[in-house]
Each structure stands twice: as C-alpha cells, then as structure tokens.
Amino acid sequence: LLVLPDFAAAVSFGAFLRGEAGEFLTGLEFFSDVGLRLALKHVPDLAYQLETRGDVYLLVELASGSSRVPLDEILASALEWGMEQSLVSDGALAATGAHRAQFWRLREEQPEGQRLEGEQLKHDISVPPGAIARFVEAGAKICGGILPGVRINPFGHLGDGNIHYNLSPPEGRADFDGKAELFAEALSSLATQMGGSFAAEHGLGRAKVVMADRNRGLVERELMARLKGAFDPLGTMNPDVLVRASRERKTFE
Question: pTM for this one?
C-alpha cells in the first residue's frame, strides 16, 4: 500500500513500475482519500495503519510462479526510486495474507462506504492510463461547475485506465439537485475527448444505449444493428442493450 501526493504522481510511478516489473505486476489499483474517508467512516472493523495520509493511494501486487524471481527486490528498487523522485510519500508491505487482505479491504469497501453515506452517482469510464490524472483534474472542475461542493471519489485500475468516477452530494445536501444527467453527459464527453470511453468494464447496458448512439456514426450504428439481427432476428436476446430494438426491427423488416 503506497501513499502518493496526487494523481500525476500515481501515473508517473505506475508507468515506471510497469517498466520495472513487467509481467510480474499483477495488481495496480488506485483510490483517493475521499473514498478512504467514507469507507473508514461507515464500514466497521476497517483500519488504516499508516502514519501518513495523502490524496491518492496505490495498491501494488507482484507475483510469480518461480521463487527465483526477486519480487521483493524489484518492488524495493521501484519504491526507492519513487521516494527519490518525491512521487511516493509513504508505504507499507504486507507481511502476511491477513495483512494483504486488510490493505485490499481499504479499496474494496469504498463502494459500500459511499452507499452508506447517501445518494451517489456512478460513472464507469476509461481513458488511456497516461491521461488518468488529467481526466480526474478536468472532471473535478467540470463537476464543481455543475454543482459546487460535489464530492468526487475516483478509484480504479491504473494499468488499463478504468476509472469509477463516483460522486456524492456536497456536505449537508441529500441529493444532486436533479443534475445527474448533466454529470453523465459531461464526464462521458470528457472521456471521449481524451481517447477513452464512457462505458468501461461494466459495459453499456440499457442506461447508456442513447448515449452510445450519440457517439457513433450512422454507419457504425447500422452495422451493429445488422450484426445483432443476423444472430438474433427476433430480438429476444438482451433487447435494448447495445442496439435499440426499434432500430433492429426497422433494419430487418
């Protein structure tokens, strides 16, 4: 578990670590202090044991099937470099399986902590890994302009650029003042501008079909409809997911 000053530091250190560890890097997750505070506030028996707090945290795991691979040396060397470059503020290594599980709970309990805090908006998006810091910073400015004081809880996978950009209302508010769609449209547009996607590991589903149509050209939409119709001419498999049923019927009648 590593403590970092900001998302730019996390991106820089993550890129260096990928180069040093290569195929042995099996876990590289990030989360913010906003999410950590919510998890610690609401989830029983959850503890943060480092003395230092930061704006960003990384969970790093290295693994190998061979005992001859010097995983500890690889990680220690990367950490030394990160601290010399002022990218890493503090860190701790899991000495046991139970210790490792405690670290991962800090990340995995954040959705529950945010749920127990109250209403939330979830955005599952992706950008190129090198653009994560820029997206988080630009997204914060955009969201603050839509609803001042909105609390932003980004967490996700530094290795592939998947960001769960979840929001909680400002302190003292119970809702988002009816602006959920404005947040979704703005963040989706920002992700697309940065070469990413508004639908990442959880896919499109029905909620994002209309948004997907607006981001696809006519040729792409019709091609997807024809492919869907070729395998499912009656539209019985997941109707209105990926392709709207009304367009399927129109295309194949």
Answer: 0.83
